[in-house]
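Minutes, project huddle
Topic: does the predicted pose make sense with manganese (II) ion bound?
PN asked that the exact inputs be recorded in the minutes so nobody has to dig through chat later. Recorded below.
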Amino acid sequence: MLEKYLDINPEVAQALKEGKPVVALESTIISHGMPYPKNVETALEVERIVRENGAVPATIAIIKGKIKVGVTREELEFLGTGKNILKTSRRDLPIILAKGLDGATTVATTMIAAELAGIKLFVTGGIGGVHRGAQETFDISADLQELAHTNVAVVCAGAKSILDIGLTLEYLETNGVPVLGFGTDEMPAFYTRKSGFGVDYRIDSPAEVASAAKAKWDLGLNGGMVIANPIPEQYQMDYDTITNAIESALKEAEEKGVKGKETTPFLLAKVKEITGGASLESNIQLVYNNARVGSKIAVELAKLEK
Ligand code: PSU
Ligand code: MN
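Predicted holo structure (tokens), as shared on screen:
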């Protein structure tokens, strides 16, 4: 029945069958998070890094109404340049499939697809979260609900301070989602290593992350895990520069009345514009770093499944 909706590429399917490590990758970052051609270059380099670290990459997207787990080179190019590629979160998925449209998957939808395919580990840049001012707007990313229910561990560089990081952590706690600091006691804030908020636990090795994930799922504690991996020191941005850029972006979003699913892409694009190329370069480097760490965790998870 699932074959009607899900198309797993042969290399990924074979790896999953043999219990080899596979890393899921999202596509909203390609279609809505970075400009062309950097988006496609980055996506290809991430796939290369995953392979170099002993895992098989599976970039996930929706192509003509079918969920592709492991897109081709041509499909990556299409996702990076196409005009009508819809940002697809959980609520959008069934309609985009039924209408036969093209979609870029958010963290939430990539988790759904990964779980359907049997992939346990997913690498991204930053997760969605509770937006600043959510007390008024109710804007809380569906990524957080997905983390509450879907059994996929997500490696990210924390959450951008376009979000309310404190409320995001509270929401995750309420939903029983562990937040692990990879080699850090502090929740990273995407462009910077520090946010001023602690993590639940610090973990220093990929094997230890894998053991924690296995324990969670062995006990039937459904839901994901956040592995917050700080941007490497040499690529982090100046705290004041990025804070000012985010403040201006938030102000402009409010003035223009930007709402709903447009909010995150609008803020990301504005921050990029205000900081020139600087934020984009940091963004690329933190994703590479997440791909390195995530692949190592996938390798350890595969060992435990044997
Ligand atoms: N945060 C980033 N970069 C991104 C996103 C979030 O730093 O590209 C994307 C991810 O795909 C995430 C989505 O799942 O935005 C969240 O959107 P929303 O807030 O509308 O749920
Ligand atoms: Mn939202």
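Observations noted during the meeting:
- Residues 139, 141, 263 surround manganese (II) ion (ligand 2) (CB under 6 Å).
- The longest strand covers residues 56-63.
No decisions taken; revisit at the next huddle.
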